[in-house]
Amino acid sequence: MNNQEKHFKIKSYSNTESQRVLEYWTPERISKAKPISPKKITKEALEKDFRNQVKSPYETESIINQDNSSSLSPFLGEPYEVDVNDFPYSAGGKFLFTQGEGEDTKHFHGTAQFIGHCQMILTAAHCVVDEDTGEEYKNFAFARAYRNVDGNEEQELFAIERIGTAEGAGKFAELDFAFCRTTESYPGQTLALKIGEPAPDGHPMHAIGYPEDFNDGNVMAAVDGTREKINDGSFVMEGNPMGPGSSGGAMMVDLNIEGRKWTNLVVGLNSRSYEDDNTVELSPIFDQHTIDLYNEVLDASGENPRRC
């Protein structure tokens, strides 16, 4: 798809509705939310998609905001718990949503993080719309720094007042990203987002999320791997077995750009994986369209003056 073919789907919620959703998410409902499972892709289909890989020299493009710390494990491909009180993990949390009505309501969670502005969070589009039907989920909220150990549940809950995806986000891996604007400002440090080619081939990458297979998704986990295959719309992080529950969690890198050291730059997110290989995750490549959607959801002119 080219940028001329891409359009946005934006939805806003009233203060009354946002407050209702905030009250809806009781600690019990949050703890019982099931991890959303990303779409699985056959290795054959993915290999075909990456047959014409990008061969151009590594380039860098636009960056939203800045950060200042990094931590990598020597155990590549092995998830481990991280401290949600420490940056960059303090910017992340569980992304909550529901499907269905009444007694048929199902509670789900993915992962999200504050990006570039005190009211803006990034997650996967498949945490906002059903990939198969295009149906929009409901009751969106963000539980920052979520942790539940021995029944002691901790989080800072944020209501969502505006949310946006690209049209066709459920059909195309390269569009599997969404932005949300929270009703209240987060006073802590936010992550930075970079568009363009994520990193050189084989470059170390760091991903976060709330994977079901690690402490039942009750704590934030991180994993270290490398950037591998890439095409014009998506790339693969190898050594990333995070799986269900980690959808929308950031993929980060440390880079030197024009003589400046950047750490924890968000260059992708947990989106899709192989059907028969749970050690890799596919991510969209962020581009100018990503920035345009970000600005559309932020809507900083008039209605929502910057409050950070």
UniProtKB/TrEMBL annotation:
Species name: Paenibacillus rhizophilus
Source taxon at top rank: Bacteria
- Protein's name according to its UniProt entry: Serine protease
A Gene Ontology biological process noted in the UniProt record is: proteolysis
Question: Which Gene Ontology molecular function entries are recorded, alphabetically?
Answer: serine-type peptidase activity
Q: Which InterPro entries match?
A: Glutamyl_endopeptidase, Peptidase_S1_PA, Peptidase_S1_PA_chymotrypsin
Alphabetically ordered keywords of this record: Hydrolase, Protease, Serine protease, Signal
On whether Translocase is a keyword of this UniProt record, the answer is no
- Source taxonomy: Bacteria, Bacillati, Bacillota, Bacilli, Bacillales
